[in-house]
Amino acid sequence: MKIGDLAKRTGLSTHTLRYYERIGLLPYADRDRSGQRDFDASILTWIAFLGRLKTTGMPIRDMLRYAALRDDGDATGPARRQMLEVHREQVRTQIAELQECLLVLDTKIAGYAGGEQRTKENDARPNTSRKPLRSRSAGPVTH
Protein backbone atom coordinates (compact mmCIF):
# COMPACT_ATOMS: atom_id res chain seq x y z
CA MET A 1 0.00 0.00 0.00
CA LYS A 2 1.34 3.41 -0.94
CA ILE A 3 1.92 6.04 1.72
CA GLY A 4 -1.06 8.11 0.58
CA ASP A 5 -3.36 5.11 0.97
CA LEU A 6 -1.86 4.36 4.37
CA ALA A 7 -2.44 7.97 5.41
CA LYS A 8 -6.09 7.76 4.38
CA ARG A 9 -6.62 4.47 6.20
CA THR A 10 -4.92 5.57 9.42
CA GLY A 11 -5.92 9.23 9.56
CA LEU A 12 -2.26 10.22 9.88
CA SER A 13 -0.60 12.59 7.46
CA THR A 14 2.05 11.36 5.05
CA HIS A 15 4.45 13.70 6.86
CA THR A 16 3.73 11.95 10.18
CA LEU A 17 4.14 8.51 8.62
CA ARG A 18 7.48 9.49 7.10
CA TYR A 19 8.55 10.95 10.45
CA TYR A 20 7.56 7.76 12.27
CA GLU A 21 9.54 5.75 9.75
CA ARG A 22 12.57 8.05 10.03
CA ILE A 23 12.72 7.85 13.84
CA GLY A 24 12.10 4.10 13.95
CA LEU A 25 8.48 3.79 15.08
CA LEU A 26 7.61 2.23 11.75
CA PRO A 27 9.81 -0.28 9.97
CA TYR A 28 11.26 0.92 6.72
CA ALA A 29 8.87 0.13 3.93
CA ASP A 30 9.86 -1.82 0.89
CA ARG A 31 10.17 0.30 -2.22
CA ASP A 32 8.54 -0.43 -5.54
CA ARG A 33 10.37 -0.13 -8.88
CA SER A 34 9.75 3.60 -8.96
CA GLY A 35 11.20 4.03 -5.44
CA GLN A 36 7.89 4.72 -3.69
CA ARG A 37 7.17 3.24 -0.29
CA ASP A 38 5.03 0.12 -0.43
CA PHE A 39 3.68 -0.76 3.01
CA ASP A 40 2.27 -4.15 3.90
CA ALA A 41 -1.32 -4.01 5.17
CA SER A 42 -0.19 -5.62 8.45
CA ILE A 43 1.30 -2.26 9.43
CA LEU A 44 -2.23 -0.98 10.12
CA THR A 45 -2.47 -2.93 13.37
CA TRP A 46 0.87 -1.56 14.59
CA ILE A 47 -0.09 2.01 13.69
CA ALA A 48 -3.42 1.63 15.52
CA PHE A 49 -1.53 0.40 18.59
CA LEU A 50 0.85 3.37 18.41
CA GLY A 51 -2.18 5.64 18.21
CA ARG A 52 -3.56 4.12 21.40
CA LEU A 53 -0.24 4.62 23.17
CA LYS A 54 -0.13 8.23 22.01
CA THR A 55 -3.74 8.86 23.06
CA THR A 56 -2.99 7.51 26.52
CA GLY A 57 -0.02 9.83 26.86
CA MET A 58 2.95 7.56 26.29
CA PRO A 59 5.94 9.69 25.29
CA ILE A 60 7.51 9.00 21.90
CA ARG A 61 10.80 8.00 23.58
CA ASP A 62 8.93 5.19 25.36
CA MET A 63 7.15 4.17 22.17
CA LEU A 64 10.56 4.02 20.49
CA ARG A 65 11.90 1.84 23.29
CA TYR A 66 8.89 -0.45 22.96
CA ALA A 67 9.31 -0.61 19.18
CA ALA A 68 13.00 -1.46 19.54
CA LEU A 69 12.16 -4.25 21.99
CA ARG A 70 9.50 -5.51 19.59
CA ASP A 71 12.03 -5.58 16.78
CA ASP A 72 14.37 -7.65 18.98
CA GLY A 73 11.85 -10.48 19.04
CA ASP A 74 10.03 -12.76 21.44
CA ALA A 75 12.78 -12.76 24.05
CA THR A 76 11.83 -9.16 24.92
CA GLY A 77 8.23 -10.08 25.72
CA PRO A 78 8.68 -9.72 29.50
CA ALA A 79 10.27 -6.27 29.12
CA ARG A 80 7.48 -5.13 26.81
CA ARG A 81 4.87 -6.46 29.19
CA GLN A 82 6.48 -4.57 32.08
CA MET A 83 6.51 -1.35 30.06
CA LEU A 84 2.82 -1.74 29.29
CA GLU A 85 1.95 -2.57 32.89
CA VAL A 86 3.69 0.61 34.11
CA HIS A 87 1.94 2.64 31.44
CA ARG A 88 -1.41 1.05 32.32
CA GLU A 89 -1.02 2.23 35.92
CA GLN A 90 -0.28 5.76 34.70
CA VAL A 91 -3.40 5.63 32.53
CA ARG A 92 -5.50 4.39 35.45
CA THR A 93 -4.24 7.27 37.59
CA GLN A 94 -5.05 9.74 34.83
CA ILE A 95 -8.53 8.26 34.40
CA ALA A 96 -9.19 8.57 38.15
CA GLU A 97 -8.12 12.22 38.07
CA LEU A 98 -10.34 12.87 35.06
CA GLN A 99 -13.27 11.15 36.78
CA GLU A 100 -12.86 13.48 39.75
CA CYS A 101 -12.87 16.46 37.39
CA LEU A 102 -15.94 15.10 35.63
CA LEU A 103 -17.75 14.80 38.95
CA VAL A 104 -17.03 18.46 39.72
CA LEU A 105 -18.30 19.47 36.28
CA ASP A 106 -21.43 17.35 36.67
CA THR A 107 -22.10 18.94 40.06
CA LYS A 108 -21.69 22.46 38.66
CA ILE A 109 -23.91 21.72 35.68
CA ALA A 110 -26.58 20.25 37.94
CA GLY A 111 -26.43 23.40 40.07
CA TYR A 112 -27.08 25.59 37.06
CA ALA A 113 -29.79 23.30 35.76
CA GLY A 114 -31.55 23.56 39.13
CA GLY A 115 -31.89 27.32 38.72
CA GLU A 116 -29.04 28.28 41.03
CA GLN A 117 -26.89 31.10 39.76
CA ARG A 118 -23.80 29.94 41.61
CA THR A 119 -22.85 26.80 43.45
CA LYS A 120 -21.39 27.41 46.86
CA GLU A 121 -18.22 25.35 47.03
CA ASN A 122 -16.78 25.27 43.55
CA ASP A 123 -17.79 28.65 42.23
CA ALA A 124 -16.95 30.94 45.12
CA ARG A 125 -15.68 34.34 44.09
CA PRO A 126 -12.66 35.78 45.80
CA ASN A 127 -13.29 38.60 48.25
CA THR A 128 -12.89 41.69 46.09
CA SER A 129 -14.19 44.18 48.60
CA ARG A 130 -10.69 44.93 49.87
CA LYS A 131 -9.01 48.01 48.49
CA PRO A 132 -5.83 47.57 46.52
CA LEU A 133 -2.58 48.46 48.26
CA ARG A 134 -2.19 51.52 46.07
CA SER A 135 -5.25 53.33 44.90
CA ARG A 136 -5.36 54.37 41.26
CA SER A 137 -6.46 57.83 42.27
CA ALA A 138 -3.36 58.32 44.38
CA GLY A 139 -1.60 60.00 41.48
CA PRO A 140 1.44 59.06 39.46
CA VAL A 141 4.05 56.78 40.93
CA THR A 142 7.52 58.30 41.12
CA HIS A 143 10.62 56.25 41.59
UniProtKB/TrEMBL annotation:
InterPro entries: DNA-bd_dom_put_sf, MerR-type_HTH_dom, MerR_fam, Tscrpt_reg_MerR_DNA-bd. The keyword Transcription applies. This is MerR family transcriptional regulator. Residues 114-143 are annotated as: Disordered. Signal peptide: none annotated. Residues 1-69 form the HTH merR-type domain. SMART domains: HTH_MERR. It holds the Pfam family MerR-DNA-bind. Keywords: DNA-binding, Transcription, Transcription regulation. It comes from Bradyrhizobium symbiodeficiens.
